[in-house]
Q: What sequence folds into this?
């Protein structure tokens, strides 16, 4: 035990603990950032309308912006759980507000937005998928202990794929972003759940800038007869 504590202390000296939302030292995720991300979700009006309601935990600034950058660009995998907790809280609120459910007891299905294969490889996997899976894990823990805040089970269906030919969207205009993803989102039909037709489908992403990827994802799902209920993102630019 002493060796483990010594090793952890040495690691902290080499890699000081720093809040992923505000850079405060001594913690990986501070209470203030957790409280900010647990605030009620806000509805967005993206420039490219996906045809379904779009919600965000908040605007792309402060702890939301920094946590996404830390997670995606600096390999902070430890941030997927606090972000997953925040997403789970937003889903519970949206269910209470009537944006999800409507008396339906089928699962809520989280569909991670597609990402470029090259980007996923450089990040050691898909961060949005990890967030979705942390939402499901949080619910499992709650069910073992005291019951979930969500009235229905969570499923994760990573069925969307970005095909070749899509460029990095940084610096692209809204029109160029639409052209960039147009026709480049496909479905892995082998991973489609048999209960998706009865479920609330939540397209999950980290940041929404113009709405181009969300719109193309919703379209790709609809072509397979899958109706997206809402789009939910960590932050809206």
A:
């Amino acid at each position: 035990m002493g060796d483990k504590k010594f090793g952890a202390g040495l690691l902290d000296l080499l890699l000081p603990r720093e809040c992923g939302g505000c850079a405060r030292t001594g913690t990986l995720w501070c209470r203030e950032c957790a409280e900010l991300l647990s605030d009620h979700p806000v509805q967005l009006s993206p420039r490219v309308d996906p045809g379904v309601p779009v919600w965000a935990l908040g605007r792309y600034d402060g702890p939301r912006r920094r946590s996404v950058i830390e997670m995606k660009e600096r390999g902070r995998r430890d941030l997927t759980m606090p972000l997953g907790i925040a997403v789970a809280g937003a889903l519970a609120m949206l269910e209470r507000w009537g944006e999800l459910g409507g008396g339906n007891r089928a699962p809520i299905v989280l569909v991670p937005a597609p990402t470029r294969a090259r980007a996923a490889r450089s990040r050691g996997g898909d961060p949005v998928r990890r967030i979705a899976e942390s939402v499901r894990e949080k619910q499992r823990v709650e069910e073992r202990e005291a019951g979930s805040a969500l009235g229905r089970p969570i499923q994760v269906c990573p069925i969307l794929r970005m095909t070749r030919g899509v460029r990095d969207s940084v610096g692209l205009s809204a029109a160029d972003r639409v052209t960039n993803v147009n026709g480049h989102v496909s479905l892995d039909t082998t991973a489609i759940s048999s209960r998706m037709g009865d479920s609330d489908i939540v397209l999950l992403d980290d940041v929404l800038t113009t709405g181009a990827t969300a719109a193309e994802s919703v379209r790709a799902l609809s072509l397979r007869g899958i109706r997206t209920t809402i789009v939910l993102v960590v932050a809206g630019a």
Notes: Helices lie at 2-14, 31-37, 62-73, 80-96, 117-122, 127-145, 174-181, 212-223. The chain is about 40% helix and 15% strand. The CA atoms of residues 6 and 37 lie 33 Å apart. The longest strand covers residues 200-208.
